[in-house]
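Sample entry as discussed:
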Amino acid sequence: MLAQQLVNALSLGCVYALFALGFTLVFGVLGVINLSHGAVFMVGAYAAEQAVAHFALPLAGALVFAFAASGCLGLVIDWLVLRPLRARAAPHLIPMIATIGVGIILTNTVQGLFGAQNLRFPVGLLPERTLSVGGVDVTVLELGIVVLSFALMAVLLLALRSTQLGRALRAIAESPRAASLLGIDVERLFLLTSFVAAGLGGVAGVLIGLYSNALFPLMGKSMLEKGIAVIILGGMGDMRGALIGGLFLGLAEVLSVAYIGSSMRDAVAFGLLFLILLVRPKGLFGTLAERKA
């Protein structure tokens, strides 16, 4: 049934959008494509699983723990890797290469600690109930993913548009030098951006781990590829584009599995992205001017 597939696509697309929002937030404010974001996503999922398995935290507590752990990891990456490169005015390619290395280190570290086998969240962490609305079955997990994802995305977008902090971040996105001359503490907001973006990535990792019922060290690799595709589709640095691009990718994947076959899942999804970019090379909302120094 098409309606059932649309519900599945919405829940998966929300996770993609949440991951891509953190990704595009770093690019929009710091001007960096952080290629360790997929590994941070994976660490967040493992952090939540360990919090549940060893500290008996409920799912809500595990989500908060994953956000905090991933956010702190984002701070460490910014402080040890990105900040020194900013101070030396390194070309854009250098942070990308550096964060590839960070991602490899994180992935290998987790694999060394937990092994390459799949881990799963404990049984009974979520109720098994299924809601039926108009002949469409919606699990508690799917409903929770949609509600939590939209809530986090709404808070982020509202903060960026309607608060003094959001205006400061948008000023930095336009020109860090001009923002500094206006009295904005640019480095502090860089750190805050890294924390929030990594935290969102970690929460997305937990949600996809629950959705697929599997955690493994390389789970961030495919998500990173999809995150890059989503932010390019939506328009580099545009929050609206990350949201719509994530939902589109989820819809394309679910419908291709349902009506074509799972083996063609990525081919169909990325093929559609390619066709859209042929029409709009800058993405759906890619109208922003080049970032000033």
